[in-house]
Amino acid sequence: MEKRLLVWGLLVVAANLRASLTGVGPLLDRVQADLGLAPAVAGLLNTLPLLAFVVLSPMVPRLAARWGAERLLGSALVVLTLGIALRWVPAAAGLFGGTVLIGAGIAVGNVLLPSLIKRDFPAKVGLLTSAYATVMGGVAAVASGVAVPISEVAPGGWYTALGCWVVFALVAVLLWAPQVRAPRLGAQPLRAHRLPWGSGLAWAVTAFMGLQSLGFYVVVTWLPQVFQDSGLSAAAAGWLLFVFQAVAVVTSLAVPAALRWARDQRALAAICSTVMLGGYLGLFVAPGWALLWSVVLGLGGGACLVLALAFMSMRAQDAAEAGALSAMAQSIGYLLAAVGPVAFGLLRTVGSGWRVPILLMCVAAAIQTVVALVAGRGTVRVPTATPSSSNGGKTGPVEIQDAPVSPPPAR
Description:
mainly alpha, two-stranded antiparallel sheet, disordered C terminus
């Protein structure tokens, strides 16, 4: 019963890690018009959370070691709730200030969920990673699909469409409260580890995380606008973004089975990255086939997200090392991803069209395909930053174990 409650808590936390971000894209044109924002400035609405990920992610393992992972995650959910509520204030300051708080709350959840799964469910990493990615993506898909309809019927328009997710965040706070009051009996506290800056494998995992995140945030920020400029209505473009995310959710459900049978994840990660490349090339050549490219991008994107999250646990020896690798991958990875929405908007403004920005995404997907061949195999050895390390508290160089590591069975 105790573990079942923990699983439900983790899944409800996951449900809040994307919805407050993906609802922005379909409303971006209205936000720009009402607040008089340039495209690059509007792109900051999905870039500011990424910058928060960059700044806060490296701090999370040490904070979790000091305060406890459960308490830290509970505090992050409260910050996330406050950020969503602040977005409801009808002013640009509320919108951008709330977005920063949302980014801070999500940053903690992003880092802690892989390490908590590794700690509490080491034999079911693939299954639970897929489950939380599916819930996260499913709620995010709904958020993008209903954003425009809510803004058209609800008092407050798009402010309400962005702020109404505070209800979901409050539910997460309440469901996680038992874990804060009484952490699971026998659960080991997370130790602090230095981030594995000297590991080539860790950098490959980081690059894979960053490139797939860059693609995701560019798509959820600008894909509706690309479709609208091709002649679709705002509502239709929002539902196509929903299709992208719904297909990604379905695809993510198939990943555990693939992880179970694969000796390593190199081929799977490379194939899924190639599918993403195909979707971007399709947008470049025939942007009018909006539904087809939404489906193709969803097929590749859903699998790549689950793989990126799973790599943080599968490439680590234990929960503490998973936390350190997760912090590195998400700080540097999201720094790369943060460039995406702003650069995409700038290139569109400078070039007066979408072809150059979409070509940039083709290049990013091609690089991701190459990186996947490295990130899909091996184990990163992370030096401990505490006196309990095997060398008496001194930190030695990072070692990489090159032997292939099969993923845990996804039962």
